[in-house]
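ok trying this again, last paste got cut off
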Amino acid sequence: MGEDMKKVIVIGGGYGGLRAVEHLSGIEGLHITLIDKHPYHYLQTEAYGYIAGRFDLHGVAIDLKNWCLGFKKWVEFVHDEVTLLDLENKTVHLSQTKLHYDYAIIAIGAETNFFSFIEGLRENSFGVKKLRNAFNFRTAFERLLYSKVEDPLDKNKGVLNIAIGGAGLSGVEIAAEMADVIKKHTQSIGASTQEIKIHLIDASATILPGMSDYVVSRTCERLEDLGIEIMTDAFIEKVDASSIYFKDGRVLDFYFMIFTGGIKVPSFELSREVKKNNINQFLVDQYMRIPDEPSVFAIGDCVEIHDAQGQILAPTAQTAERSAEYAAQCIKQELERKELKPFNASIDGVFVALGGKYAVGEMFKIIKVKGYAAYLLKKLITYTYYIGLKLRVNTGFKKRTKTFDE
C-alpha cells in the first residue's frame, strides 16, 4: 500500500456499511477496511419471508469475506468486534489489535428496543433485528404448524394466538406473510391451521405510523382479508410466558410473541462523550459527521436522520443507503479539496410486502400501486440488490478458492 493511500474504516456490515464500501471503492487513493462482529450481512428487509418459511438461509445471509474479495481493488474484511473508537488518536481498537484510520464511518445499525417499562417483554418475546432471533422465531412458527398437522383433532389445543407487538413496517410484513402462509397451506396442511390467529398490536392510533393514508388504508384492507386481528391504541402493561396484559384490563393468551415496536442503538464506546438521543442514536452535524470530528461519519439506523424540513426519517434500508452514499461522496470531495454540501435526505417511495404476491406501494408521493403490480416492483428492487450482492460474493469466492488451490 502506497504511503499516500488514505485509510478508511467502515464499522458495521449492514445496508449502510455495504453501500458505503461500494461507493468508496470507486474513489482512487483509498485503502478500505470493513469491520463486523458477524461474518455475514443479514438482509433484515427479507426477515418476513425467512420467518414464514418463504426464503431459506442463503436468501437472507451473505458472507462478508467473499463479498469484500469481490471488488477489483483491495477491500479488507476484519471479522472482529470494535471495543473502542479512539477519536484523539484516530484508531479503532479491536479485541487483539488496533487499526489507524484517516476516515471512519460508523454504521453499527440498531437492535430491538424491548422497552423496560413493559414488565417481562424482553424475557417473553422474540426480536428480528438479529439473524439468530429470526431463526428462533422461524423455528417456533414451524413448530406451531407442525403441532396442527401432527394432532389436529386434539380439542384441547383450540385457537393458538401469535402476537406481534409493533405495527410498523417489520411487524406488518411479518404478520401478513405468516397469515398468507397459513391461508394458502390450509388445504394441504389441514383445516386445523385456521385455528392459528395472528394479532397485530400497537400503542399508536394506526398501523404504519408516519406513512400515507393510501398505504395505511390499503394495508388495513389486506390484513383484514388475511384474517389478522388489528389492535391499535393498545397499551401493553406486562407480558409473561403465555399472556399479554393490557392497561385497559384485557388479556391476550399467546403461543409466542414477536416484538418489533422500537429500536435502540447498541452500546458503542468512544474515547469521549458525544451527543446522542434517548435511544442512543448519534446526533450528527449537517454533513453526517460526529460534531467536532471532521474525519468520522455516522450513517444509517445508528443516527437520528432528518429530511430537508427537519422531520425525523424512519430508520429504513433506503435511508441507510442514502446516508452511506453521501458519506462516501463527502470523503471524495474532501480529497479533491471541494466544498461539502449539507446532507439532503429524501425518500423516493415505500413498498410494503403483504403476503404472497401482494404488496402496497407509493413512489414520489404521486404513483400509488397495490396488489400484484406492487409486488413485482418491490421484488424487482429487492432482487436487484440481492443479485448485486451475490455476483460480488461469487467473484470473491472464486478468488478465495483460486488462492487456496495455489
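PB: full thing came through this time. The domain at 131-262 is CATH 3.50.50.60 (FAD/NAD(P)-binding domain).
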